[in-house]
Amino acid sequence: MSNGPRQTKQPPQIKICLVGDMAVGKTSLAHVFLQQPFKEHYQATVGGVVMARTLENPVVTCQVWDTAGMERYRALLPHYMRHARCAVIIYDCSNRETFDSVKNYWLDFVESCGEEGLVKILVGNKMDVAEKVRAVNIQEGELLAQSRDMPYIETSAKFGLNVDDLFILADKRVSWHQMFYSYLRPVEKY
Fold it and tell me: Alpha helix locations (H) across the chain?
């Protein structure tokens, strides 16, 4: 019997990095996932911000890294991506330039600095705005995701649509990848 401090078992953590151009809604998605109210206007993220929420069934803590989308902070991004288990690559459904940036920069960036087994998810955010002014159709997002062997989901941080589903998907994909890669690792002989 020990009289020392009682230790509680911490749930496993997964590091999820949100990447994409500025103003695609990375911060809004993170805040809504953390069950904070949606704000119409945010200040641009400088560097990176880390937030966490614990999911149930199975219990896991999602450590969400909200990264800056401005070009001047891109040199910091490989540091933020270290040990990430999931990269959520986000564009704005109502802004064609952000989708083109995903194709021409973000996908290759994530591939180059992500670690083995990194789960990637493509997200078209602001689907509420896209109902009025859609610049990227759903099929384009789906085709791009399929070409890179990753899931695709559309979200609306403003209305909370598919936000929890996005992070639950990330958790499930990470768990599956961890199980798959541990199965493939060679067994050491003694």
Answer: 26-33, 77-81, 96-101, 107-113, 127-130, 138-147, 163-184
